[in-house]
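Technical annex B. To support the medicinal chemistry partners, we prepared a structural model of the target in complex with NAP, based solely on the information shown next.
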Amino acid sequence: MANKVAAVTGSNKGIGYATVAELCRRGVTTVYLCSRDVGRGKAAVENLKKEGFNPLFHQLDITDKGSVRAFAAHLKGKHGGLDILINNAAEITTEFIKTTYNDARKVIDTNYNSAFIIQEYLYPILKDNARVINISSDCGHISNLNNKYWIERLTKNDVKVEDVNAFVDWFLDSVRNETLKVEDFKEPFFLPYRISKIALCALTRIQQREIGRGISINSLHPGFVQTDMTKTVVPEYLVELMKQNPKLTEHLGRVPLEKSGEAPAYLALDVDQSVKGRYFWHDKTEKDWADPNLDVLAKSEDFKKVMKNSGIEIPNLQPIY
Ligand SMILES: NC(=O)c1ccc[n+]([C@@H]2O[C@H](COP(=O)([O-])OP(=O)(O)OC[C@H]3O[C@@H](n4cnc5c(N)ncnc54)[C@H](OP(=O)(O)O)[C@@H]3O)[C@@H](O)[C@H]2O)c1
């Protein structure tokens, strides 16, 4: 892994942290652990040092232009650029069912709009044949949508940034105006997160078309990993119960936290350089992102079955706007 320089956004914990550890384990010479909070980031670096790894630290808030610009200048000055960029930092809605405008705005800013800041400042310093991995989700697959108009507009071969932005605006406007239709979505929970990740996958394909210089940009569903993020949306007791339902386990694709860096590292180091603009699954297989009929999502029906079998009261799962 001679002289490769890698950076993982939002890597003070969770999948990002595991990815930094995996890149170090795989022998990448220079790996940046990035965190918006200096204290949390430096503590994470110290933990990895105890495991025998030696990542570097840099502050990075992906929603803050100044922060991203400063990191880009640092990378350019110190290393001449960047070989591997793993866009991992993200957040989820604060509530499972309820969708509010402010929450939606915040999640979409962090998970989707930040990609334009990264594109503006970090893409120009990517070295030839660099690799970018956008960490998406199963929630980012097109099959999350039922709305035929948006499925067609987002999956057309010449999709443009304006199409994706229009999709995001359509969603935000309908939340603000309370005109959102549940029928437009397969699973109507944490919708802003789903919208942000669908938009990120669509943008991945556009960015790939435009970037050139041999650079690859792929997106990845890292699997269901128990982290602070999933604790927000899937309570611990349900995670245990999920083991009772093979379909749910298969669809969720449970990945142990300490192994969750393997798929990002595969795309960063192993997959052929010709693989570009694709969507990958945690088991390192490619899935057709644009196929609306692909049966890959964990369904609330299966969650309900598991709860019913265990005598747990099923909450009202009707979305509230
Ligand atoms: N866990 C899963 O099952 C799962 C499934 C599918 C997809 N994913 C995706 O995998 C990625 C990692 O998720 P995770 O489960 O590891 O989540 P996590 O444990 O909540 O970690 C998220 C990381 O992102 C950082 N972050 C959030 N907003 C940021 C910002 N504005 N600037 C910089 N860093 C920011 C957080 O920093 P702080 O510590 O400062 O908050 C944290 O380091 C995300 O893209 C997520 O959507 C996860």
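Notes passed to the chemistry partners:
The CA atoms of residues 9 and 59 lie 9 Å apart.
The longest strand covers residues 126-135.
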